[in-house]
Amino acid sequence: MTILYRRCLDHLKKRKRFKIFFNRAAWEFPESVRGVPPAPVSGLNLLPPRLLDLLSPRERTALSLWANEGYRAEEISRIIDCSASTARVYLFNARKKIKAFLEKDNGTMQTR
């Protein structure tokens, strides 16, 4: 029961942290919330939203901070509260998923 209790507390803290982060992002970039696409800053803004839905919240956050804000793994690790090596793993996995999706999507588009 203690393990379950602590896991639930961790989950609630994580949800709160991500909610604060995304609320702050919506406040700082209100045009993206209203549906007006922001000017592309990097390649991440050009990706289809359904692709970003394939990523876990931590992978999505790490990738967004890396691609849009230019943060390094050490800085990302402080923001999402993990080690720098774990942040690098999140970035690696996110890029790997995006690459696999784009390769699969390109293959289906070429066969049509």
Describe this structure in words.
With 112 residues, the protein is mostly helical. It has two domains: 38 residues; 69 residues, Arc Repressor Mutant, subunit A (Orthogonal Bundle), CATH 1.10.10. Helices cover 76% and strands 0% of the residues. It is built from six helices and no strands. Helix 4 crosses helix 5 and helix 5 crosses helix 6. It is globular. The model has no long low-confidence stretch (mean pLDDT 76).
CATH architecture of the largest domain: Orthogonal Bundle
Give me the CATH superfamily of the largest domain: Winged helix-like DNA-binding domain superfamily/Winged helix DNA-binding domain
What name is given to the CATH topology of the largest domain?
Arc Repressor Mutant, subunit A
CA-CA gap between termini = 54 Å
Query: What is the approximate shape?
Result: globular
User: Helical percent range?
Assistant: over 70%
Taking Cα atoms only, what radius of gyration do you get, to the nearest Å? 16 Å
- SSE-based structural type: mainly alpha
Largest sheet: none
